[in-house]
């Protein structure tokens, strides 16, 4: 019997210390070949786009989700995403971390002579098309606010920005990091579930036992990612699945920066054996408590989506068996930490 022909595997490095680049930036691949994206330091994605809109996720395209790698992880193992080439059509890819695409962090498979034009188009796009953590406007109408920033008794600048009525006002030029604990033994919670944060603050989600995500949504659709429901092309943040063993002593984190005073809504998109979001595992920052869109209303709306047969459970799949039907991304984390991306019938690695 003739041996089974196997495709070649092409290795691509994503990011690294001070690097906003895929290396190599493009390659030619045959049908059946695989492309292994290895993520290095910082926090990047491998997200399919189109030649026409380089910095916007393609509907139905693959997306690794955000893959954070600590600065002190210099020896690995490093997380990786494997993509299987199904035809010879060009495949266009970008990093959807805010502004990385606009700085030229794009990649292509079988681009022909069009890669330079693809990258140039990406660098010419507005940064607003792929901001990773800019939340959507709420139902309230923003008003213009003027703020004077002062440090050490010296006036530095006066600025205007859109602020939502009843939301937090800036109080200091010094930013604060807000720690939010995600999950834990028998817990389907974000703790604290509702915070107030200033412009420039950061929110660090620390993932505890089981397997959870911190995924941006909207008040209107609490249990669906913002990327799926936005009608204006907004791409919300998504930590990806973060499996943590019951006996773990170190815990992964995912950090987002607060860019304005609009409410930020988030949920856990784990759905095995039941939807964590529909069990009330949601989070909010800067929810306007004087409006109808309070945190309590957001959580109640999430719980109302549960079917009558749904039962509360803290169970979660084993770290090597995580699946997300919502995004088409299967996450397998072990010693090599590989994320296999499946979309439109593409072969899983």
How would you sum up this structure, described in words?
By secondary structure, the chain is mainly β. It folds into 2 domains: 9-127 and 328-341, Cupredoxins -  blue copper proteins (Immunoglobulin-like, Sandwich), CATH 2.60.40; 173-317, Cupredoxins -  blue copper proteins (Immunoglobulin-like), CATH 2.60.40. It is built from 3 helices and 25 strands. Strands 2-1-4-8-25-24-23 form a 7-stranded mixed β-sheet, with no helix packed on it. It has a 4-stranded mixed β-sheet with strand order 3-10-9-6, with helices on one face. A hairpin with a 7-residue loop joins strand 13 and strand 14. It is globular and about 55 Å long. The protein starts with 8 loop residues before the first strand and ends in an 8-residue tail after the last strand. This is Phytocyanin domain-containing protein.
Strand composition percent: 25-35%
Order of helices and strands: EEEEEEEEEEHEEEEEEEEHEEEEHEEE
Rg to the nearest angstrom?
Answer: 21 Å
Tell me, what's the shape?
globular
The N- to C-terminal Cα distance equals: 24 Å
Percentage of residues assigned to helices: under 10%
Question: CATH superfamily of the largest domain, please?
Answer: Cupredoxins -  blue copper proteins
How many distinct helices?
A: 3
**Biggest sheet, spatial arrangement of strands:** 2-1-4-8-25-24-23
Structural class: mainly beta
Total separate domains: 2
How is the CATH topology of the largest domain named? Answer: Immunoglobulin-like
Task: Just name the CATH architecture of the largest domain.
Answer: Sandwich
Biggest beta-sheet profile: 7 strands, mixed
| Average of per-residue pLDDT values | 76
Poorly predicted sequence stretches spanning 5 or more consecutive residues = 126-172, 310-349
CATH class of the largest domain: Mainly Beta
- Number of beta-strand segments: 25
């Amino acid at each position: 019997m003739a041996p089974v022909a196997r495709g070649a595997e092409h290795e691509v490095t994503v990011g690294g210390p001070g690097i906003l680049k895929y290396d190599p930036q493009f390659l030619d691949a045959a049908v059946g070949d695989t492309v292994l994206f290895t993520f290095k330091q910082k926090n990047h994605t491998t997200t399919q786009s189109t030649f026409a809109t380089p910095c916007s996720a393609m509907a139905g395209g693959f997306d690794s989700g955000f893959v954070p790698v600590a600065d002190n992880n210099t020896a690995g193992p490093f997380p990786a995403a494997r993509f299987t080439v199904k035809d010879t059509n060009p495949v266009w890819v970008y990093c959807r971390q805010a502004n990385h695409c606009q700085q030229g962090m794009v990649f292509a498979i079988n681009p022909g002579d069009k890669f330079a034009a693809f990258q140039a188009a990406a660098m010419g796009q507005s940064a607003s098309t792929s901001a990773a953590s800019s939340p959507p406007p709420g139902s309230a109408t923003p008003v213009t606010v003027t703020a004077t920033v002062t440090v050490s008794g010296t006036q530095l600048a006066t600025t205007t920005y859109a602020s939502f009525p009843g939301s937090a006002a800036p109080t200091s030029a010094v930013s604060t990091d807000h720690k939010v604990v995600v999950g834990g033994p028998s817990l389907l919670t974000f703790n604290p579930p509702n915070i107030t944060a200033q412009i420039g603050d950061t929110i660090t989600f620390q993932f505890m036992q089981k397997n959870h995500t911190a995924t941006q949504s909207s008040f209107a659709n609490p249990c669906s990612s913002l990327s799926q429901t936005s009608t204006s092309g907004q791409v919300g943040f998504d930590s990806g699945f973060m499996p943590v063993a019951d006996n773990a002593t170190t815990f992964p984190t995912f950090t987002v920066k607060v860019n304005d005073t609009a409410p930020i809504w988030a949920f856990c998109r784990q759905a095995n054996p039941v939807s964590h979001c529909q069990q009330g595992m949601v989070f909010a920052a800067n929810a306007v408590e004087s409006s109808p869109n309070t945190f309590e209303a957001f959580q109640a709306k999430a719980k109302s989506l549960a079917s009558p047969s749904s039962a509360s459970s803290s169970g979660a799949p084993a770290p090597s068996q995580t699946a997300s039907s919502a995004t088409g991304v299967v996450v397998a984390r072990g010693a090599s930490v590989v994320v296999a991306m499946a979309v439109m019938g593409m072969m899983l690695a």
